[in-house]
Structures are given as structure tokens and as C-alpha cells.
Amino acid sequence: MTVRIFLIFCVVPFALMADGFSGLGSNADGFVKPVPDAVFHFPADHGPHPDYRIEWWYLTANLTGPNGTAYGLQWTLFRSALAPGEAESWGSPQVWFAHAAITTPNKHFATERFARGGIGQAGVEVEPFHAWIDDWSMQGSDLNSLKLRATAPQFSYDMVLNARGPLVFHGKNGYSVKSAEGQASYYYSQPFFQIEGTLRLPEGDVEVTGQAWLDREWSSQPLAETQLGWDWFSLSFKGGAKLMGFQLRQTDGSIFSSGTWINPDGKTVSYSDGTFVAEPLAMSSVSGRTIPTEWLISLPEQEVSVNVTALNRQSWMDISIPYWEGPVRFTGSHEGYGYLEMTGYE
Amino acid sequence: MTRVCLGAVLSHWRHNPLQLFTLIAGLAIATALWSGVQAINSEARASYDSAAAILNDGQYDLLLPKQGNSIPQELYVDLRRSGWLVSPIIEGSLENIKLIGIDALTAPSGLGFFSIDNLTTILRPKAAPVLIANAETARLLRGRVKVQIDSTIAPGMAVGDIGVVQTLLSRNDLSRLLILPFQPMGQPKLESLAPELNLQPSGQAADMTQLTKSFHLNLTAFGLLSFAVGLFIVYSTIGLAFERRRALTRTLRSLGVPLRLLIKILIVEMLSLTLLGACSGIIFGYLIAGLLLPDVAATLRGLYGASIADTLELRIEWWLSGFLICFLGSSAAFTGRIWHIWRMPILESVKPRAWAVASRSSIRQLSFLAFILLGTALVLGIWGSGLSIAFAVLACLLIGAALALPMLVLLALNFTHGRSGETIQNWFWADMRHQFPGLSLALMALLLAVAANIGVSTMVSSFRLTFNNFLDQRLAPELFIEVDNADQSAELEAYLIERNVEVLPLLSMSRQIAGQPVRLFGVRVSRTYRESWTFLNAKADAWDRVEGGVAVVINEQLAHRSELKVGDLVEISADLSLAIAAVVGDYGNPKGQVIVSEEVIKNLQPDIYATQFGVRSDSPSSLRKQIIEGLGISSKNIIDQASIKAISMEVFERTFTVTRALNVLTLGVAGFSLLMSLLTLSDLRIPQLAPMWALGLTRRQLGWMELLRALALSFLVYLCALPVGLSLAWVLLSIVNVEAFGWKLPMYLFPLEYVKLGGYAFVAALLAASWPALKLMRTPPSILLKVFAHDR
After folding, report:
1. Domain residue spans in chain B?
2. Phi then psi dihedrals of residue B166, to 5 deg
3. Whether B148 contacts chain A with CB within 8 A
4. ipTM score here?
5. Could you tell me if residue A320 is left (phi over 0), alpha (psi between -120 and 50 degrees) or otherwise beta?
6. Which residues of B touch A153 (CB under 8 A)?
7. Counting beta carbons within 10 angstroms of the beta carbon of residue A106, is it exposed (0 to 12), middle (13 to 18) or buried (19 or more)?
8. What is the pLDDT of residues B283-310, one digit of tens each?
9. Can you list the domains of chain A with their CATH numbers?
10. Of chain B residues 49-78, which have a CB less than 8 A from chain A?
């Protein structure tokens, strides 16, 4: 999900970020850069890495209500550093922000929060695990069993998550390359969460159950200047296998892609550039833009060729940094559901 | 032909440079004071706007501490983590500069002035701390903190990141929290999360523009008065110029100049002269405003806590309004004259009529108009309400009085004339009556100026006397001590009680009472209160009832605004309504106040503590020393009676500096107007004086008589101005002040002051008349003789 880094500093001229990250093309700013063959330490690495420019705890879930209605849920906490390191009180260079959303077949609710580091308004602690911003939180004794909460003027949710599989590392043991020039991030996931809880919507409360996928990623210099935007897929197949794949669209029309095939037991196969292929099949008009909401996804090595369709084509995150993110379903060589994120469509 | 005609018309001014000067000066003076006042007002308005724009937090609900000015930062974080979307603001002073710190991340979008540049500057934590301020403030902050200059920031104010401002103020708390408009569902109740905070609904914060409106209206009224006085000069000069050119117009028309062309030429001439006058007036106005602005700024700071720039900017709104009013005024003066030429038969007699002879019928018309205006003033004064009506009363009163002047003076002259036996005396009075119409406009101006002076000085002196008494009542305790926290408060009280001194603890909180944001005070009713407070209106046992917790004392402002009177009930909280036992005068404070007993306020908020103490002591300086040494209370938190009184009086004096300055200027303008009228008349009067000279009166005698005449007229004007001025004072004290500030002031009379003012008016008239009189004394006999040679 490294491509999501793009979201924070390239997609929209968000004032703070635009300036704060304008130095990304260069790298002489004191931030630590990811290196290959790093060794992860847990639970410490579930916590923040303030010497890296950007980091997130990114959870998406496919849910089903009592009458079989499908829902999507998102909870994301971002950390973005204006300078490396940490400091006391308002002097902290760490800025936190978060997005939450619920998608129904015909509605999409999205909201966001912002916080300064150093004063306790937002942060992540590892033992016990606790990630929070304002009254939103993701907490539990460890990363395997969590409680999740978010509130907004129009919706809120309280969920319980339990991991039914191991952590999964993308790229080369968690070192995920993002461009031919070598931009990279640290990237691992917990794609095996069982999730249940209550969605509070304007129409009333809905009890839901389903599957959730948590991404952890941090980096300092993630994208090449020639990259326009990306399309990111997390797909869960009937039978328990999963696929994470993304493609970065570049200014010259070429594509850089990457994928991870995850077996039901958590064993992974990583695919380098060009193996994972995503082709738009149908476009929709979303918030004044034309956005592909139906895709043909193929991964020949795993004999995958599926048609991916958005549950709600209007899953537009209309917030400071707008983008498309919502639940999808797929048919074809395999069947299943998943999540799709698309950025950079102007 | 046009050029020749224009040359002929303009030659009048070349031959009469004094008239030209009078016209231009009249226009300039009229415009100067008006545009000066407008310049001050627009500067202040711009300052308020930019101050409001910095936070514009009036549009949001606010959380304020029920007590004190501090909110712990932890409380802010607790509120956020409980789902309350609030944004922190810290406000404090760094050597007279108001620092405002905000958190750009949680602030509602559109809060204040932030542009992309500002936002990133403000939020760059590891760079040097940065504030944003205008150039003047930046200069004051030089060397202490890096300042980014932004001219849109209000003067005396600097904005920065909350962390930077906290560091500069050596604080770690917050001043208030702004509640964002959209809140998430399922929040816990605010009262249980933060019982120590008060929610102030949006739109109830004191709005500077609203608060200072009355002050600026006062200034505007003064500007208008000065303009009116200036306009009298313009009107009389233009009248004179046209009258003197009757022969010229007849000749030009006889020579075949079309009437239309002549009219066009005259209009162009008048408009050009007006433009010249307006330009010089605006320059003068700018200078006057520049001189007065620092005092106005100090007044606004002292009275309302409003910061305005003390340097002027050339803003289009005020110089345009200067031009506009100058053109309007001069058009009003010359339109009638041009209309007269338009209607004049081509060969009408050009025999020089006495200039602007006000016939008995026209004086009758003026008097009738005066009667209507004065009647309107009376009706409005009795039945009208509102600040604008109050100023309408003032306008009707002043203009009505001015228009009534000719009739009154003529009546007086007829009276004296009938009573003087001697021939020369007889001639003196008859000639004065003859001369009067030519001077009437200048005398009206003098009347306005003297009346305004009497009125304003009565108001200021009454106010000063009342304010002084009021300070004596309110500042009875010898020492005033402020504490920072509850422990210090308790410690101080115990310490003082132990030493057997009378302690007057003051507990206070902000509250919404009777539809107004007011300050609620809890007092310990003691001998001092009973002995020194004078009520405007009260029940006999007012303090007993307050002490018993069954009644309140409210200030006059609140009583006026919420239409409350003694005996009415006011709702203090949902389950507590108390009767009003007394209404107390409270001057120099624009806001409402309610006073209850210590117990009542403690029931409302059990954890409240006294932040201020009044202390009675026979030896305040030694007690002060003991408190500083014994309790470690900072010396700057203890102030003695004399100093606090001095500070209050200083604010008061500065408040009226501007008023007094405008007053003096108005009197000066009136004197100038009289001088110009007498000078222009002096030439015209030669034919009337020559026969007297021929009959044996020396030029010296005639000169002295001229002087005496001016003094007699100015005395008459002064007599008329006295009642007008006192009425003006009454309107200012009883109507304008009530509407503007919510307090009514008792009116005191200051006869000595009035005698002094009469003296000034005499001196003005004497100065104005002495030059023409001297000129007359030195008129060569040949000129006087020529009168007979030219006799037609």
C-alpha cells in the first residue's frame, strides 16, 4: 500500500503538506531512508518511527449486515513528520491525521481528524497496543485482538477485531520497492482479521461481521517525481488466499506494478514490476472526475483473471485530500471481495 | 469668447485676493475637520476589522473558564479525546503587544488570516519561532522573535503558533477553546467533562465595532459640526462674490455673451475653486487626524481595550467622503446664486445692494424655520429614543438656535435703540442693525462654536466630577490585591483576617443574565460597602437584602439595556431568581454587572475563589510590604488606591483630549469666519461711514466704534449661546450618554468656566474685529472723500 504515500503530498495541494514535503525530491533533510534486509522488532515496530517522514496504520474491512447487505469500513491513522525526531509539547515536529469512512451500497460517509504530536492528542503506544487520535482509537493487549472506534457527525462505529493468521511482509521481507529508481518503504500487513461490531448510521444501528485488513507502512522518500497516482487492490479469495497488488501510473504512460500473493496459511510470493496487471474496464463520473470503477485484474502466475467492481461507485473521500476508496467484489477465474484505493485522477 | 469671459469672471478674484482666500480657507476648514474625523474613524474601523479577522471567533461557540483566564492544556486534550472537537487559543500580552496563539491544525478552516505561506511559516517547529504581525509591531518585537510582516494584521497584535506564543509568554495553559461547528455523534455531556468551563454561544463575544460605535459616532458628530461652521463661511463668501459681480454679469450679457455660456463658466469656476479647497482641506484633515490619532488610540485602548493603529493610512473612503461633502456643501451654496443669475432680467439695476440684505421677511422665514427645528428637537428629546435620534436632537437644536439668532439679535438691538437718547449712540445702534445681516452668518457660526464649547465643557466637567466621586466610592479600600490561584486566595484571606483588617474579597464569573453577557460579582457585604456606595435608586435595606442572599445590585448599564428597575426579578441561574435591591452608577465601563453576596456566588459554583481583594488599612504601605514578604505575592499584584485612581483619571482625561481639541478648533474656525466677514464688509461699509466722518467723527472714533460694535455683537451671541450650550450639555449627558454607554450623568453647572468661555469668545471677536478697525482708522481721507465723488 506504499502508493498511498502519494496521497499525502502529491495529490492535493494541501497547504501544510505541500510545503512540509516539497523537499521530497531531494533527501538531504535528516530523515532516515528504508534499506533492504532490515530486521523488524515487534512489538516496537508496531509503534511510530519518528525519524521517518511518513507512516500509517491503515485498516479496511468488508462487512455484511444481518440482511446480507454489504458494507465497507475504513480507519486510518497517519503520522507525518515536519522534521525527524520527537520533541516536548507543541514543539513536536510530528503531525497526525486520520480518515474514517463507512460505505454502503448507495452511500459513502467519510470524515477526518488532525492533531499535533507532543501534547497527547494523538499517538501510538505498543504495550499494550494503542493508536489514537481524539476519541478515535485502535487498541488491545497486542496487535492480534483489537477494539476499533471512530465517530463523525453522521456516523460512528465500534468494532472488535481478532487476527486468524500471521503478519505478512511485502516486497523483499517487508522492503517494498516503489519505482524503478528504487524508492521504497517498509511494508507489512495483518490481512487475517475477523471483525464484528456496530455501525451507527443515520438510518439506525447495524450489527455487522466480516474480514479486515491492516496495513503498516513507513518511509521517508517514497515516490518518484514522474509518478502521477496509483491503483491499489487488496483482494480476499474464496478459499482463504489473498492478493495485494498496486500499480503506479507514470507521466510517460508507463506503469510500475507490484504484488504479493498470500496463501491461506500466510506464506507469501512477491511479484516484481509487470507481473500484476490491472486494466480499467468501465469508468464512472465521480465528484466531477472520471474514475475507473470496474477493473480486469490478472496475475498469470497464480492463474488469476478477475473482474473487479466497486460496491458503490461513488466511494469518494471528500476530505482535505480527496481520493477514491471503497469495497469491491470480483468474479471470473476466482470470486471474492476486497478493497480498492485510487488516487491521482484529476 | 469663452476664454475672454472666463478671464473677466476670474479677474474678480485677482482684485479681491482676500475673498479668494476666505473662500478657499472656508472650504478647506470645513473639509479638514470632517475628513480628519473620518480618517480617524476609518483607521479605527480597519483596525477592528483586521483584529476581528485574525480570529473571527465571534462566529463560533466558545468555552471560557468560569473563573480566571486560564484553561489547563490537559483539559483541552481530555476534551478532544472525549470526542469534543475544540480548538485551543492562547492570548496574552508581551509588553503591550497582544499575542494570539492558535493551533492551525485543529482550527476551523477559514479561521483568521492564514494563507498557505503563513500556515507553513507558523507550523515549522524546528525553525526559529515565528510570529506574524504588521511592520510597526514587528519593529517592537525586534530581537526577541522572528517576525513575518503582514500588513493585514491589526496593530499591536501578533499571531503565531500556540507553542511559540506559550513559550514567549512563559505559560503552558490556554485561554479559550473554540467549538467547531460540526461535532461527532454520541459525545459525553460537556458539563460533566469540563464543569470549570462556561459555554459562550457564538455572536456574544464583545464586538469591538459595536462596542466603540458610540465613540466614533461622537467623533462624527463633531466633524459634522465643524463642517457646518465651515460651511457658513463658504456660504457667505460665495454670496458676497456673486453679489459683487452683478455688474460684471450684466455687462457681459449686454455685450452678447449667451446666458448658458456664462452659467457654464460660473459653474466651472466654482467647481475648480471647490476642488482647490477640498484638496487643501483633505491635506489639513490628514495632518489633524495624524495629530489626534495617538490620543484616540490611547482612549480606545483605555476604555474598550481596542487596539488601533497610531499611524494613518491614506484610505480612499475618508478622502473621498471629504471631497464629496465639500462639493455638496459648496454646490448648496452656489446653486441658489447661479439660479438667481439665470432668472435675472438682463438689464436689472446693478446698484450695489447691501450684501445679502436679510429683509424682515427673510428673517421672519428663518425664525419660523428655527421655531420648527427647535420644536422638533423638543419633541424628539422627550419622546424619541436611540443614538441616531439623540444626534438628530442635537442637530435640530444647534441649527434651530443658529437660525433664531438674527431675530433675537434684532429684537435686542431694537430694544437698545429705543432706549438710547444721544445721537451718536442712536446712530451706533442703528448702524449695528444695518450691519448685522452681513455678519449674521459669521455670528451664527460663532454661536454654534460657543454653544458647542459650553455644552461640551459642561459635559466633560460634569463627567469628571461624577467620575471622581464614583472612584472615591468604589476605591474606598486602601489596597487592592490580585491572586493567581485558590491556595494563594485562601492564604491571603486567612493572613489578613488574622491581622484583624477589613477584607473585601471579590469573586467573579461571566454569565448570561437578562439576555446580556454580564460579569457576576460576589461580595462580602461590609461597612465599607454600606458607607461608601451611593445608589442611583435603591430600597432602604438594599445591602441587608444582598447580604441575606435575597437580592442583587445591578449597574445602570444593565438596567438600561435590559429595562430593569429596582424591585424587578433577575434570573441568576435556572433555579435562582433574585430581586433587584438597587441600581448603581458604574462609569467608564461599557458592560453589565450584577452584584450578589459571596454565599450566592459560591452556591452557583462551589469551587470559586476570590481572585481580587480590597483591604482597608491605616498603614497601607507597611501592610503591602508585609504581604509581599510574608506571602510571596508579587508586588505587581498589589496596587494602592492612589495609583489605581491616577490610572483611571488618566484614561478619563485622554478620552476627552480629542473632544477638547475639536472644540478649540471649532472656536478657531468661528473666529476666522467672523474676521473674514468683517474684513469683506469693511470695504462695503466705507460709503456708510464716510458721511459720519464728514459730519465730524474722527477715523479713530469710527475705528473704536467698529471694534465696540463687534464686541457688542459677540456679547449678544454669547448670551444666546449660553442656553443653547446648556441644552446641548443636557442632551449629551441625559440622552447621548445613556444611549451610547448606558449611563446617565448628573449635570453640574460651572459658571466660572462659562465666564472664561465668554472671555475666549470676546477675544476671538476682538481679534477678528481689530484688523478691520485698524484698517478703517488708517483709511486715507481721500478714499472717504471719493465716496461723495462717486455718489450716485
Report:
1. 1-50+213-353, 61-201, 367-468+650-792, 479-616
2. -60, -45
3. no
4. 0.91
5. alpha
6. 182-185
7. exposed
8. 988 888 888 787 777 777 666 666 676 6
9. 4-342 (2.40.370.10)
10. 73-74, 76-77
